[in-house]
Structures are given as C-alpha cells and as structure tokens.
Amino acid sequence: MRALIHFLNRHLAPAIGYKGRLRIKTLQGDGSDRKVYRLLTGKKSYIAVSHPRGRQGRPSENDSFFLIGRYLRNRGLPTPNIYAYDPPMGCFLLEDFGDQSLEALVKSAKDTATIESIYRQILDILIGIQTEGSRGFESAWCYDTARLDGMFSWERESLYFIRSYLGEYRGLRNLSENVRKEFQTIAALVDRERMKVFLYRDFQSRNIMAVHAGYGLIDFQGARWGPPQYDLASLLIDPYVRLSTGLQESLLAYYLNGLSSKVALDRSLFLEHYEYIAFQRNLQILGAFSFLSREKGKTYFEAYIPPALESLKKRVSGSAFHPYNLVRPLLMSL
Fold it and tell me: CB 20: neighbour CB atoms within 10 A?
C-alpha cells in the first residue's frame, strides 16, 4: 500500500487533475498476483493496479500491458484508458470498467435467447480484435512469447496439464512415455492452422466487463500472435459460465459467418482445427485451476474443475480424437 500511495501522490493530479480527498477500496483479485484498488474521488472512480513483481524483461509483463492496451485503444477497441504508468514502481492508473463481468451478466440473464444475444455482441468484438487488432500489432510488445504454436501448446499447456492436473491434483505421476508422446502429437496439430491473428490468450467471461451500453476488456497483457480458434474456444468452453453444447454450436456458426465476411475462410478446415485447439485450451484451463487451487491456495478455483473436465471429455469423445488410442481412454477414465 505504501508504494501505491507514493505512486498516487506522484501521478494522480497530473494524470486526471484531481487533488481532493480520496477513498481507496481493495478489490478481490482473481488468478494473478496483481493488487487492484478502486479509487473513489467523489463523482468518479478509477482503478489503480500495483504489480511490482510482474515478470521482468524487455519488455516486462507490465510493459506489455501498457503497450498492448494503448495499441488496442488506438485501434478503437474497448480497453481501459491508461492515465498513468510508472514502470519502476509497477503501478497503473486506469479507467474503471465497474464490477459486472460477462460471467455475472450471463448468470443473471433470464433465458437462453438473452444469453445468445449477449454473446453475439462479444463475438463481434472478438472478430474486431482479430481483424483490426492484427493490423500493426508488434511482436516486440509481447513479454512472454511472440506466438502460440504447437511447441508452445506442448510446453505450456499439455505439460502444464500433465504436471498440475494429472500429477499434483489427481496423483497420476507416472505417465508412460508413449502417452506423453501422443499428447505432444496432438499439440503439434495446432500448427495446421495457418491463419495467425492477434491472440488475446485469455478471452473469457471474467476478463470481459459490461460497461455503459457496451463491453470493456481487461487482462490483455498475455496477447501474442496465434490461431483465431484459440480465443473463440476460450470464450465458448469457459467453465465459469458453462454454455450448453447447442448454444456453443449456434455461436460458432455466428462467428464463422462474421469472420468470413472479413477474411477468406475455409470453414471445414477451420472447424477441424478448432477441435484440436479447443482441446489445448481445455488442458490449459485444467492445469491452471489445479495449480491455483493446490499451489497458490486459491481453493475457490476447484469448483470449476468438474465443468472443465466434463468439457474435455466431451471433446475427446468425438471422432477427431478416435485415432489417439492412449490419450483418449486416459482422459475418458478421469
């Protein structure tokens, strides 16, 4: 808190012109180590973020948030205004997008038609991110890696799942080398998708906020180049909201119609690749929830492991995974 106060003393008045009394409310974080605060100035509110231990490098994790957020906003996409950023302190002063996430909005919806209407608006934003957001996006802004490809999927998603979910959460620590090789073979299928777009990486209902008459996006610092199916899968198989299979299929068709109006698209190939890429996202989700609940002590994430596992098992039961005679029965047995 001392660092935050020092940051505000230095930047608040120059950034927004406010010099009056200030109330600070601590907000509950999610899966990250960032500390988030709401600043109440009377008529308006702002968000302050303190993340001095964000991953370092050139650029650092905080630099990526600043560079990518500024870029997206300049492209007309709904990211928060960044009023101030202090790199040495790891602090930000941001526009406040409120408390109502897409998750909360969906759970308060009265019927499926309302939910579908909401998601169509979100998919329109996603298509805008993947088209407008790809024009001028620089790999040099990515603190982590420049792209999501088959090797990334193996090292950072499949192995994450094997270690954190199968090993630590389920106690299955002695997978055969043949099983691991089959996981690696599936991960390599991600490279079959040749289209590379601006990839948000964590495009799910807790990172999309309902603001005014539209929506705002947060937590975009992990963006990079990657296949368009990944963000689509992140949204549709999101275990926080548990969209039905029928609704997922309807929304997938809506997305394909929208994207194909912007870029040349082979729908059958897109759908074929979607299965493998959604599989990788599902592994990442289960790895993350297991890691956060067991190693970070954030046990509330355990509630979302069963729906994520159900989604994974439903996917591998499909014909696309019938050739994988080791991975498929292992996952179906969980």
Answer: 8
Q: Nearest to residue 133, comparing CAs of 267, 230, 270, 228?
A: 228
Q: What is the pLDDT of residues 262-280, one digit of tens each?
A: 999 999 999 999 999 999 9
Q: How far is CA 220 from the centre of its chain?
A: 7
Reported as a single tens digit per residue, the pLDDT across 200-215 is: 999 999 999 999 879 9
State the greatest distance between any 2 C-alpha atoms of the chain, in Å, as a whole number: 66
Q: Fill in the DSSP letter of residue 147.
A: B
27: left (phi over 0), alpha (psi -120 to 50) or beta: beta
Residue 211: strand pairing partners: 214
E strand or H helix at 91, and its extent? strand 91-95
Total count of domains within the chain: 2
Of 63, 95, 127, the position where a domain reaches its end is: 95
pTM of structure: 0.95
Residue 57 scores a pLDDT above 90: no
Cα distance between residue 233 and residue 277, in whole Å: 8
Cα separation, 136 vs 132, in Å, equals: 9
Distances (CA, A) of 268 to 2, 37, 99, 131: 55, 46, 39, 20
Between helices 177-188 and 267-294, what is the axis angle to 10°? 130
How many C-beta atoms lie closer than 10 Å to residue 249's C-beta?
12
The helix or strand, by DSSP H or E, that contains position 312, with its residue range, turns out to be helix 305-316
The range of the structural domain enclosing residue 230 comes to 102-332
In the DSSP assignment, the letter for residue 80 is: P
Tell me, yes or no, whether 208 and 140 share the same domain. yes
Residue whose C-alpha is closest to residue 118's, from 133, 134, 99, 104: 104
Indicate which CATH number applies to the domain containing 114.
3.90.1200.10
> Is 54 strand, coil or helix?
coil
Same domain, 249 and 285: yes
86-128 pLDDT, tens digit per residue, is 999 999 999 999 999 999 999 999 999 999 999 999 999 999 9
Pair (176, 250) in one structural domain: yes
